[in-house]
Write a structure and sequence with these properties.
Layout (H helix, E strand, L loop, with lengths): L1 E8 L2 E7 L9 E11 L1 H9 L1 E2 L2 E2 L4 E2 L3 E9 L11 E4 L2 E2 L5 H4 L10 E2 L12 E5 L3 E3 L6 H4 L2 H14 L6 E5 L3 H12 L4 E6 L2 H8 L4 E5 L5 H8 L5 E6 L4 H5 L1 H4 E9 L11 H6 L3 E4 L7 H9 L9 E6 L3 H10 L6 E5 L4
Helix pairs in contact: 4-5, 4-11
The structure holds zinc ion.
Amino acid sequence: MAEALVLEEKGKLSLRDFPVPDDLGAGDVRVAIRTVGVCGSDVHYYTHGKIGHFVVNEPMILGHEAAGVVLEVGAQVEGLKAGDRVCMEPGIPDQTSRAAKLGIYNVDPSVQFWATPPVHGCLTPEIVHPAAFTYKLPDHVTFAEGAMVEPFAIGMQSALRARIQPGDIAVVTGAGPIGMMTALAALAGGCAKVYVADLAQPKLDIIGAYDGIETINIRETPVAGAIAEATEGWGADVVFECSGAAPAILGLPALARPGGAVVLVGMPVEPAPMDIVGLQAKELRLETVFRYANIYDRAIALIGAGKVDLKPLISATLPFKDSIAAFDRAVEARETDVKIQIELPDA
Ligand SMILES: [Zn+2]
């Protein structure tokens, strides 16, 4: 038994003792969790009890964006030892699966992903995790930054799917945490400029503070007009849809240049219509993103090299004992909040 943040059912969280699985296999590491980010998906399970066909039917530990310290390693683990500071990739595929063999383990149908029912998350002092999905952090990268690698990996996967070329102009529709991560990954991936569009000015102010990012408040300026003006009517090389909002999805073709790419990152709650002829008339390349695969090393390398600074996106840090308050604040969805993190005591 260990203390854990448990989603008992829709709308009901408790911080209580819970039977946390702790068998250390030969290829596993035991990690003392230090920082966990609160993700939109955790919050959605809390407020709605389900995401699509993933339904919370029994109590589940929340949390999947984590960093910590290795306590113990299994008999066959090489390259990690007690005391190493690490972050963990929350999705564990079946490593013998067809998808894993193809290198696309993020879409392995049998992937076990933290805090996706019925799999427990990591908001508890210790977890056991495969060493193969546990990554060392450079000494100067904090646990807080380590816990940001998970959402940043989605931005990285989006940039990868876009096949950015040096000097590309990109647009990101939606300035939520994933939109911001995508914008920063696109810049790191070689974009000359990234335009981020949203209707919440406080969010735009946060992401607009980064060099290389311009913002468009769509309450004041229609995004298509702004992009046309910025590109002399040609359009953006890459459009990242990160809002999941139906009107934004319908308007995608207008933002892209002929022969450009559209990357669908945001997840609409309901099926959303697309302007197929609009896509065809410019022969746009359509890409989709689901989590990430083989990204963590690169994401950590960029953060470690100082090419990407995610610290300004950490809005508040609450202690583990106030986890429920952290979730209730995340539910408020303040426009000045990007990422809320929970810190566990140094064991
Ligand atoms: Zn997440």
